[in-house]
Amino acid sequence: MLGRQGVDHELTTVEGIGDYNNLHPIQQAFIDEQGFQCGFCTPGQVMSAVALLNSNPSPTREEVRVGLSGNLCRCGAYEHYINGVLRASGQLA
To answer: Across-strand partners of 19?
Structure first.
């Protein structure tokens, strides 16, 4: 999404879903599953995961893989992110 596509729309960023004292379940699950390495892709992974779980609260492993496929992770921590989404989906259910 380009910035100008957000005009007249409500946008939520990673800073808007939780904070240091009250993490979003996705943020906590990513920490628990070591779904972070360098942090380069983490905000995009988190927001993709939130969007996925908002539309599909109980995704399969393959659905998570597809849901996160638009984010490139230079550290290769994909399995950690997938495990984090699956963990969070269980907590949100």
So the answer is: 22
Distance CA 6, CA 56 (A): 24
pTM (2 d.p.)? 0.87
**Tens digits of per-residue pLDDT, 63-85?**
999 999 999 999 889 999 999 99
Cα–Cα distance between 47 and 80 in angstroms, integer?
15
The residues near 52 (Cβ < 8 Å, ≥ 6 apart) are 59, 63, 64, 67, 68, 85
Measured in residues, the chain has a length of: 93
